[in-house]
Amino acid sequence: MMGVLGWVAAIVAGLILGWAVGRYAIGGRQFPGNLPGSLVTGVIGGVLGAFIPGNWGWTLDGANMIAAILASAVLTWLVGYFGGKQESKSAGTSS
Question: Where are the transmembrane segments (predicted)?
């Protein structure tokens, strides 16, 4: 069972990974919900990943942090890639 420190660590890892993946790794796509959407998706992935059983890797107060980081990054990327819209490039005006 996860303790308070495990919950906090999973949420913080999800926020950081959600921001980073939503900002840099989507590849020309607009994330659904923009920044709040990527942060929420990162937190969901982090918390779900922290529940993956086993004492392999780095655990913190019952939370599997390696799985939390990987799940947060993968879930955020998947939602952004498959749920995001292609950003349109404005051609600008020429005189």
Answer: 6-26, 38-56, 62-82
Overall average pLDDT of the 5-33 stretch: 84
Is the alpha carbon torsion for 12, 69, 44, 33 positive or negative? positive
Q: What is the pLDDT of residue 91?
A: 54
How distant, in Å, are the alpha carbons of 7, 9, 28, 36 from that of 88? 38, 37, 9, 21
The pLDDT of residue 94 is: 53
Backbone angles phi, psi at 36, to 5 degrees: -60, -35
Q: pTM of whole model > 0.85?
A: no
Residue 27: is it exposed, middle or buried by C-beta count within 10 angstroms (0-12/13-18/19+)? exposed
